[in-house]
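Write out this protein's structure.
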Amino acid sequence: MLHKWPMHLNLTNKEKNKIIYIMTLTLILIFFMMYLIIQHFINIDIEGLANCNQDQHDLTYKNTATIEQQQKEINDFKKTMQARLSTIQTQVKGFNTQIAKNKKEVATNATTIKSTVKDINEAKNRKAKELDKAAGS
């Protein structure tokens, strides 16, 4: 719309040239201001990295990413080990219960064996007496 002049304005060529000159200057000014603003955001210093050169920025980001990845791996390993430890603790509790049960059964079996041996010895002694009576009579 800038190229069409309103019909009711009667401007001389000199006035028209001034307006075109001012508009051109304004557009160039706007262009350079936008350029400066963009350059400001591109070259802005990142907090903590202001004294580093650009190569070190990249290295710092890589190191930070590596550390974060290692921390995730450590946390995953920790969770896995805690789960395994929990499983082993459950198994140990089960073994302890089974060991206690086996101790009771061993004690019961020992008592039963002693009783059985005693009964066998008594039966043997009775048979020996019967045989002695039968042989001595």
